[in-house]
Each structure stands twice: as C-alpha cells, then as structure tokens.
Amino acid sequence: MVNIIQKKFASIQVQLKQSTCEAIMILRSRFLDQRRKRRNFTKKSTEILNEYFYSHLANPYPSEEAKEELARQCGITVSQISNWFGNKRIRYKKNIVKAQEEANRYAAKAAASMTPGGSP
C-alpha cells in the first residue's frame, strides 16, 4: 500500500515539475516578446534628433550633457539617444548622397527660422 502511494506521489511530482516548467517557459516567452517589440520614436523626437545631428555634422558626437538634454526633449533615455546617434552615423556614412540632401533640407529649415520673416 505504501509502495503504491509513493509511486503515485512520484508521478504527481513529475507532472507538477513539467507543468511548472511549461508555465515558466510560456511566461518567459511572453515577457521577452513584449520587451523586444520594436517601437519607433515620435516624429517630433526624430525631428529634434535629426536637427541636432545635421547642425553638428562636423562632429556628430553629442556630449553627455547634450544627450541628457535631447533625452529630456524627446522623452526617451540617454541610452536610446546614444544608440540613435550611433545608428545615424553609420547610415549617414553608408548613404552620403541621400543624407546630404536631408542635411540640406534641415539647414534650409534652420535658416528659414533664423530669418526675420521666419518663426523661431
């Protein structure tokens, strides 16, 4: 009788371990899926970052203070700012012609806001 109970208990333990492991794997998968979901920055944030990048094209490496200010303005983390600038520099170098056209657009926009008739 004791032997039967021990076997049944061992069987239940194995089932419990398996179901617990499966539940943990499902929860882990859901958590990682949510964490890794790609989210784009807002259009305003991208504009702010592009304006800074193209106005500092000679040295597109913002200081820690500048990164903190940009993060505050954009509502994102300093780490995201650093990653954005790293990616932007790589993409800029890969596609210099298209990037130059984009830089010219931002320069014209900045110049228009500086003229007496433009709005700041």
Task: Spell out the blueprint of helices and strands.
Layout: H1 2-35, H2 43-55, H3 64-74, H4 78-94, H5 96-114
Helix pairs in contact: 2-5, 3-4, 4-5
What are the secondary-structure elements, in order, as H or E? HHHHH
Count of helical stretches? 5
Overall geometry: rod-shaped
N→C terminal distance = 88 Å
For the largest beta-sheet, the strand count, sense and barrel status come to: none
Helix fraction by DSSP (H/I, runs of at least 4): over 70%
Mean pLDDT, all residues? 87
The Rg value, from CA coordinates, equals 27 Å
* Low-pLDDT regions: none
Strand residue percentage: under 5%
Q: Supply the helix-strand structural class.
A: mainly alpha
How would you summarize what this structure contains?
The protein has helices at residues 2-35, 43-55, 64-74, 78-94, 96-114. The protein is mainly alpha-helical and 120 residues long.
